[in-house]
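Design request, tokens follow.
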């Protein structure tokens, strides 16, 4: 199979340092350990392949281009590890913000009562408590069982504990 490099873009050059001098050449002539030819031959995707050349580190995803059950080429997508690290840090920061918001929301709706503290003798109320306890065990955050807000609040607060 023809494994000649036909196209690279400026972003690929920026991340890998490989310039347009590779165009028109056999990939393995230029880069003997290249895995893109393997993708062409075995038709398997390769995800997150670590590469290091000189002072550059990056990850590569590779996939065959298949048309009508025939492999007509392959494509590789590179991600600079610097960018991956930056995205990872941003994700960690956003995750911390989310945890902080969850803690704040949890304190807003902290339970003030237990089921045992709610007084009620009506048979319908026992059904509400039973349902609320089941919801509390499941981890769902809310039960919309009663019509008046203050009663919902009592039930909600009670089963949150």
């Amino acid at each position: 199979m023809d494994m000649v490099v036909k196209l690279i873009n400026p972003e690929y050059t920026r991340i890998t340092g490989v310039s347009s001098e590779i165009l028109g050449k056999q990939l393995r002539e230029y880069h003997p350990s290249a895995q893109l030819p393997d993708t062409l031959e075995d038709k398997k995707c390769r995800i997150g392949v670590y590469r290091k050349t000189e002072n550059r580190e990056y990850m590569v995803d590779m996939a065959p281009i298949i048309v009508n059950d025939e492999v007509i080429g392959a494509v590789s997508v590179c991600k600079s590890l610097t960018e991956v690290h930056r995205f990872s840090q941003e994700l960690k920061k956003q995750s911390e913000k989310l945890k902080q918001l969850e803690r704040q929301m949890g304190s807003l709706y902290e339970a003030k009562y237990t089921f045992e503290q709610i007084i009620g003798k009506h048979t319908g109320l026992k059904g509400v408590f039973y349902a609320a306890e089941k919801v509390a065990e499941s981890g769902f955050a809310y039960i919309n069982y009663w019509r008046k807000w203050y009663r919902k609040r009592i039930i909600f607060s009670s089963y949150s504990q």
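Comment from the thread starter after seeing the answer: thanks! The longest helix spans residues 81-108.
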